[in-house]
Queue: 2 jobs
Job 1
Amino acid sequence: MTTEQSPTVRKLRLGIELRRLRLRSGRTMVEAADHVARTDSSISRMETGQVAVSRRVLDKLCDLYQTGPEEREALLILAGEARQRGWWHVYGDAIPPGFDVRLGLEAEASCLWIYEPAVVPGLLQTEDYARAMMQAEPLPPSDDLVKARISVGMHRQRRLTGDHAPALAVVLHEAVLHHEVGGRAAMAHQLRRLARPAGPGSPDLRVLPFSAGAHPAMHVGGFTLMSVPLAGAETYDTAYVEYRTGSLHLDKPADVDDHKRVFEHLRARAMSPEESRQLIMRLAEAMSG
């Protein structure tokens, strides 16, 4: 399976190139903003990949930065791809506010590190588990919305198979394994899915046992670290944190490094993958009895 192009990532790549060309030309953000009749904060948002860049603005920036014809053509192609819609846009309201950014980064991430203290991560959920989680909401979504969100989840999981699958490392707190989401039969099926033998798309999955005691993630809950290849050896690294009514993308190096240290600490204190698999299978068998 080939990697799907993400307009989110194309915006980031275009922004990096625009910043490189501006610095090479010796122009300031204020000069660039004046040239295209925008504010310097608008130029900043373009260079950080937060907004798309129109053909007119891109042409004027290329004139200012004195880019060559080949560079200009490459930027125009990149800008066109950045203005396209990702696969998730067809699902409309099924995508929670802000979650489209995660989907855009996840679509091309080369590495994902996930810590979850209470639920099975969406990338590893069975349909029954996902449905039960949605039905547990105080105001459960409609049947159509449930079906759409399950389709989104299954689409996400297809990225885990094939030659371009990201490296996936997951630490689950042991509590995740004991919540009987959807009933004992559905949870047993979910546990067996987690414990499947290693192969394409299988994560490095480890269980943080109750006996691990206090740890540095107890005050922050779950999070996902993503590393997305950009130009050359450069990557865009972010820590994604969900809360009940939204999410945060923390991309300052200090924030990302802090979450990396926490994840490494948790993984070091967790059971080995084989020990984790054995525990999960024992629980699955107990729930199947």
Note: The radius of gyration is 22 Å.
Job 2
Amino acid sequence: MINITEFKGNWNETKGKLKQKYAMLTDNDLLLIEGKQDELMGRLQSKMGKTKEEIHRIISEL
């Protein structure tokens, strides 16, 4: 599972890849605000219909 430091460090690249793969995601859906990682994960889970573990797997495979 990807750790939060790796997640933040590669976020701009990851965000672009997620938007390419999942066109329904918007910039607002993918806002990463300090201290709001859980909110971001919840938003992705809701929008994509995936579990937290599935979201982590998807991001780590990009």
Note: The chain has four helices and no strands.
